[in-house]
Predict the structure.
Amino acid sequence: MTAILDEVLGRGIPADSIVLMVSDPFLPAELILYEICTSRITYYVVTERHPERVSAEISSFAAASGGMKEEVHIVDARGRNVKIVADVLLEAKDANVIIDTFSPFVDDDILIENMMNACASHNGLWIFLFVPRGACDEKYMSRLSYLCDVFVDMRAERVGDDIIMKIAAPKVRGGNPSTRYVRLRFSSSSVEVDTSRDIV
């Protein structure tokens, strides 16, 4: 999947899982999403940022990290276009579906049910829902956290003069949860595990 998620999850993400990724909004969490794109066919559903910019950033990331192994389909679902997202779920097979961000859809019960049905059909999907922390009403986030199969938490904390960026996966249905945070190191075109010091 990715070096980061493999490090955090050990054996990786179970097949046909919905993965909720929550991050502090000022972290460059999209770099982890871009890394996910390099490993399998990916439908990257853009709901708020400009699709051309996302496409250019993915291409730049892939070039800096050794290239793209599979196709990436950029899907423009801005304007809360639920039908486009539903069509992707019907079309995708043995692929990643990344929804960046899922914030506009957190209260859409029908779309959430469609995602759960898509994973239950055993089509080889990994569905990644990215939500910036604090972007959605807590009651919707609590429900989504319960329904997802994997919960990935990315945080930043100030320790002295340093900003510590870290990741954990405290919920993994059918796998091994990771309650210990792993420190991350970001650059403009990569994200790596930094185990040089203990997490504070």
Observations:
- The CA atoms of residues 45 and 74 lie 6 Å apart.
- The mean pLDDT is 87.
